[in-house]
Amino acid sequence: MSSITCCTGFIHSGKPSGDEESINGVKCYVAKPKVSNSHAIVIATDIFGYTLPNSRLIADSFAKEGYYCVVPDLFEGTEPPADVMTDFDNLMSKTATLSQKVYAFFRVLWYGPKFLLFNSASSGIKIIEKVLPDVKKSYTKVGVQGYCWGGKIAALMAHHDGLIDAATAAHAGGLTYPTDIQNIKVPTFFMNAEEDHAITVEQKQTIERIMNEKGSKFGSKIYPGVKHGFAVRGNENDGNDKTQRAQAFLDSVSFYKRIWE
Fold first, then answer.
1. Per DSSP, which regions of 64-183 are E strands?
2. Nearest alpha-carbon partner for 253 in 261, 222, 73, 157
3. How far, in Å, CA of 60 to CA of 12, rounded?
4. 192 is in which domain, residue-wise?
5. What's the whole-model pTM score?
């Protein structure tokens, strides 16, 4: 969590249609395609974890595109509850009452340090690494799609040849520039918000420059008029948020199809 804006957002409507399974001892949400394209996606979630409907609905959307999709439990119960999004919103709001702000402050103070105490990008990577061998037994290509906290995980996993076959990272906070971008080896696509306090304009320009230098299997895109978290926690009732969120998903699918098919 590099700023308060990393944790604001909305819980999306819809009922996930996949199943909860244990993969090599890791609790996971699994969405299976009716017709498989022999490729798999692992979703590295934002700080609200694998039970958040948003991430599960994205997994369902990947399954509809023919991908076997796994959402591992990266935080093992240490993630904040989803309604903490409202508390972060109230802390930033100009219209929230004093009592709302005080209540929000203490909830954030309770859940934020607890999350950071028990979690790191490296701990999330280790959990995904437990899941990968089982997935690779059945699928020829495996990509990691990360959101916010998970975006950093996806980018760092892309440093290693042979660990994953591709990565997509949406509003990946907490990266070290330019090193973490330069060290990327496998095909990677970054999806960034135009208005993002967690990723500066200069950092987005660095991503774009280095991805362009790496060639046609690498890329980045900035989505207009949206904020950090839009691709996973965007407002369904905001027309542009909804449009850009949908476009980010379609762009990630197009990226995987282009490099794998």
1. 68-72, 141-147, 166-170
2. 261
3. 13
4. 4-78+119-260
5. 0.94
